[in-house]
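Example complex used in Figure S2.
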Amino acid sequence: EDQVTQSPEALRLQEGESSSLNCSYTVSGLRGLFWYRQDPGKGPEFLFTLYSAGEEKEKERLKATLTKKESFLHITAPKPEDSATYLCAVVGSYNTDKLIFGTGTRLQVFP
Amino acid sequence: GAVVSQHPSRVICKSGTSVKIECRSLDFQATTMFWYRQFPKQSLMLMATSNEGSKATYEQGVEKDKFLINHASLTLSTLTVTSAHPEDSSFYICSATRFEAFFGQGTRLTVV
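Predicted assembly (223 residues):
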C-alpha cells in the first residue's frame, strides 16, 4: 500500500535557524513527489515537483531533494512568514493522478 | 503556478438545506478534479475523483447521495452537500490537475 510519513509533526525555529523537514514514502512506481505549503484556512499552495532520485529544486529559502525512499525540504535562514504547514504527497503508477498525502509538518518561525 | 478558484470561501447554512461549492480552473483545462475534506490539524482526506463527462468516483465511506459531484466541463466541477447536518461542517477543498495538482482556496462550511 502506498504510504507517506512526514516528520517532525511540529517544528519551532528561531528566525535564521536553518532546518530540514522529512518525507518518507512507499509507493509502487513513483511518478512524482510534491511539496505544498498550507496556511491556516487556505488551500495548499504548490511548491515543487520532484520526479526522480537525485533531483533537487529551489525556491527562495526552500530547497527540496529526493532519494529513492525519502524527500527533504530544507529551509535556509527561515523568516516568520515561512510559518505554515508543509505537506508532502506522492503519485504512484497505479493511482492515476491521486495524491497520497502525509500528515504534514507544522512549522513555526519566531522572530 | 496555475490558478484554481473555489467559491464560496465561507458558507453558513441551516440543517436540512443543500449547499453548492464551485471549483474552476482559470487558466488550464484540468484532466481531473478532486474533492477533499479537511478536519482541524489533520491532512486532506480525499472524498472523490471527478472527470469531465463521467460519473465521479467516490472513496470508501463517502456517501455519493449526500455529496453530489457534477463535472460540467474541463474547467468546472461542483460539489453539492445535500440535506446538510452539523456533522457535515468542515473545510472542503478542490484541486484541479494536469499531473501537478493545484488547489482552490477552500470552503469553510458551517451547518447550524
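The interface with chain A takes residues 1, 4, 6, 31-32, 34, 41-44, 46, 49, 91, 93-95, 97, 99-106, 108 of chain B (CB under 8 Å). Chain B has no helices and eleven strands.
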